[in-house]
Description:
The protein is an all-alpha fold and 128 residues long. The protein is 76% helix and 0% strand. The chain has a single domain (3-127), classed as Tetracycline Repressor, domain 2. α4 (57-75) packs across α5.
Amino acid sequence: MDKYDLLDKITEEHIKELRKLCESTTEMNYIDTELLLFEYFERNYLFFSAILASKGAVYFRTRFLEFVLEELKNEVDIKEGENHGEDVTNQFFGAAIVGIVEWWFKNGKPYPPHVMAQRVGILLERNL
């Protein structure tokens, strides 16, 4: 197994853990859910900051976006209301979430997880 296969495997394990976290948050609001996620990212800061600075960043970003879009699909009702037929909404917020997480790591976690969770959660609550 070469180093890229190992990075892929570890990335998949983290995606699986993130999925488990999200499954445990079905009754939580966006802010509390985001707090769990940002705390997870902080606990695993070395891995995520290393992967985003390496050639593995593309793979991680792709897998993380797929994960976020799947979670949004479960949260956002695009069959009725304001978001009817708006798969663009999910794509927009999926890319935004991936981008803000990447920014957070690349800038050395300029805000603690609870601040990030509050800001991202408020944006999601306001717009979804």
